[in-house]
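Whether sequence alone determines local backbone shape is best considered at the level of individual chains. The sequence in question and its structure tokens are set out directly beneath this paragraph.

===
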Amino acid sequence: MTTPATPEQPTQQRLPRTLTRDLSNHDGQTVRLQGFVHARRDLGGVQFVVLRDVSGVTQCVGSGLTLPLAESSVEVTGTVKAHPKAPGGFEVQIKEFRVISAAVEASPVEIPKMEWNVNPETMLDYRVVTVRGLKERAALKVQAELVAAFRDHLMTEGFTEISTPKIVSAGAEGGANLFPIDYFGHPAYLAQSPQLYKQIMVGVFERVFEVAPVYRAEEHATSRHLNEYLSLDVEMGFIEDEEDVMGLENRLLASIMTRLKATAQAEFDLLGATIPDVPAHIPRVTLLDARALVQEKYGHVVGGKDLDPEAERLLCQHYAETQGSDFVFVTKYPRAARPFYAHPDSNADGSLSSEITRGFDLLFRGIEITSGGQRIHDHAMLMDSIAAYKLKPETLEGYTEVFKYGMPPHGGFAIGAERLTAKLLGISNVRYARAFPRDRHRLTP
């Protein structure tokens, strides 16, 4: 009979810790595991404990154990044995079982079963526990790898990481959708984008990027919107036009997917998702042509000045079917659909258009994941644009000042990390692609 150890009676000769993913390297050997009680069963004289650590789960079998509540952190010392029905093909026969930190009450959600019987809002209400679930943490692992790949690739292309203020005096996109705050008696806002600062920093490093949260006071309560999300921002100087920016994003996405295949394939397998291939040249279609295409091919009439969600879905369906691409750039956005700093496009005679910009969106599997384009770099043109948008020049002086001093042609884009993660993994609601989401109705946990 196995005698359970107590926290005051640790194993005398401590073995190095083994992770569950490495058990195949220790068949027949004694190992020491540490992790959480993922699940437990007591079949009279035999107890089964499914232990979860950062690398996965494994079945541990013993007798005479006093099992703590699920989610308690424990230490198991035992012998590794091959077992075809056990997770990973191996189980651990317990020699010693020690409770490191016992759960003081039952978990509000039974993590191994929550996928099929827990209300989605309950999963968010008890996120401090539910985020421990295997699929939940897999999504966050993929996002972490995605962000690491984003950083690594940009550095190989000569970019420098920057950090910009998240408390600002004015909005980056004309003042809409801002969260106001009291800044020592003065009005201020949470930053909705690092756009203006990353443009300024082009004058310093030429190529810059930032990974940071941004805040949008949008009243949407949909599966695709968050009020705080992780923005992956890029800006590059000395470009010819927006094609240079789209080319960079094309290479960046290809590099990210290559990294995910090498480091996160297990997480994609767990979630039944496929890592997409990125075409060497992602298809392009102008906004006007895109609207015409979905109307002519699918009978969907698009209102407004942009594409609606259904049009985005249909356009992606078309390019997936006709060109085998999960990605499509929508280009040449009208001025009315772009912020004041969007650079006007060229007319056939070489003059600048008063209606069309060099702005673009990137759609992926039916949803926009990127907005970008070339920015205005000429001071006089920028001041004219600010006036045309009926903005107050004095609120943007800290930004416009730099354009008096020789700013080069430049452009960039921003990727919503949660949206990209959700679409990669087939997660239906973007809230589950963030550890602790902030949406229209949620400030906790």
About this structure: The mean pLDDT is 93. The radius of gyration is 26 Å. Residues 125 and 225 are 18 Å apart (CA to CA). The chain has twelve helices and 18 strands.
